[in-house]
TrEMBL record:
InterPro entries linked: LolA/LolB/LppX, OM_lipoprot_carrier_LolA-like
Gene3D superfamilies (UniProt xref): Lipoprotein localisation LolA/LolB/LppX
Recorded superkingdom: Bacteria
Name the UniProt record assigns to this protein: Chaperone LolA
CDD domains: LolA
Keywords, in A-Z order: Signal
Signal peptide region: 1-20
Amino acid sequence: MKKFVLTGMLLSGIIFSGMAQSKGASDPKAKTVLDGVSNKFKSLKTVVANFILKVEGANNSVTDSKKGTVYLKGAKYKVTLPGQEIISDNKTSWTYAKDVNEVTVNNVDQSSSAMTPAKLFTNFYDKDYLYKLDGETTEKGKVLQNIELTPTDKSKNVFKVIVSIDKKNQSIAKMKVFEKNGNHYTYEITNFTPNTNLSDALFSFDAKKYPGVEVVDLR
């Protein structure tokens, strides 16, 4: 199930729980931008976002690229990738692998340090990272404000994250994660649709729709 661990990390912004409180000083201009994204997201009832996930090895060689969709409704979420689904109703989480027709069931960690896809858009950055504004760039007709985040826990494999914010829409356009082993992960949002009608049934796993599915219940 290694690929699910990787996917889950990426879709939660590659943020690790249990990091120390920031001891250094962060850039107040960067905080203003990040707070704007967080406040906008908190005002939305639901979000549907399409994304491209790219995994790059050393020397920027692309080793994998996948398209997916994330559905968010409060703390509930569903992530779909080719052959994979990750679902949570904020009490139970289900991780489904199509190739083996298996779903793993877990209780949701309710601690404040636990990371979920929803927290990618909220104020995770205040406790886990130091951050600074790293200029603006223009990509695909959009002005992006680039913010460099460095984790306060230096023992982690991730040493830097670049978050690119759409200046006009105050939303995350792209996130690039740098690991000490030379791997890079890019999570690019290609479409962002707020306040669509999402049924609560979307955020639970219905085994009846997956004939013969093997259930691994770890609760």
